[in-house]
Protein: 1,4-dihydroxy-2-naphthoyl-CoA synthase
Amino acid sequence: MNLTDVLYEKKNGIAKITINRPKVYNAFRARTIDELIWSFRDAWDDNRIGAVILTGAGDKAFCTGGDQKEKGNEGGYDYSGGLGGGIGLEVENLHQTIRNIPKPVIAAVNGYAIGGGHVLHVICDLTIAASTAKFGQSGPKVGSYDAGYGSAYLARIVGEKKAREIWYLCEQYSAEEAQEMGLINKIVPPEQLQEAAEAWAEKILQKSPTALKVLKYSFNADSANIQGISQLSMGSLAMFYNTPESEEGKNAFIEKRPVDFSKFRR
Ligand code: S0N
Structure:
């Protein structure tokens, strides 16, 4: 595949996948998601690879979720249906791929992990964050949601109360706060992030691949029902996206103005 939105490299048993759209803080469009799925599948198929690192280009962001400026644009982020559950983005498929690849996936969070970008690190097996990283959801601010792994699986990690706070208030949390709530595994200085992720990947390479695979699938089995919830969420999102309420959220972000959802309260 000709990759434009993602950098993909394989070295010494480790695959590194980098979301490479720094101008939009590594927000994803349909093509980005397709390239991520392709890269994960390649790492899955390659027996030389034992661990995968997911990160973002630059020092500002890991990933800020769906590209708000590409929503509704052909080839970017449309509502035309297809495998993306109607939202024009194969996000649900990507989530399943990260969960099902039989190798540990480490998120190396180098900046903002927001919205659908936050969900990506949540789904990864492990998260190492730069001390400058910021975490949070913003869906209800921009007329969107991930009410599958984004909410139900998040609640398993940080607990119901905290997960509700994260989604209802849409605040940002520091790396220290994220570690306190069990959302991430480790914090390192920004300049040591990639090295730290590679060091953990190298430790993983010394372990039995079969044991790791079975352990990963056993962890997954306990939360497997969330896949169905995720499908419902993505399916309903397709119906929500082109409503005036959802458009108000997206337009307020693009126009850099305060959002006004008051007339949609009913
Ligand atoms: C990350 C934030 C907080 C950074 O704020 P800051 O530092 O003030 O910088 P900005 O000036 O806002 O941003 C710098 C430049 O980057 C662009 N940009 C940033 N994020 C996006 C984005 N997501 N889409 C498009 N462009 C983006 C800015 O526009 C700016 O460019 P210029 O200078 O040219 O204007 C802040 O940027 C922020 O809040 N970003 C939006 C994050 C967001 O709302 N993401 C989507 C949220 N969605 C959800 O939470 C739930 C939905 C979900 O998980 C999902 C499920 C399925 C499919 C898609 C999604 C999805 O994520 O949408």
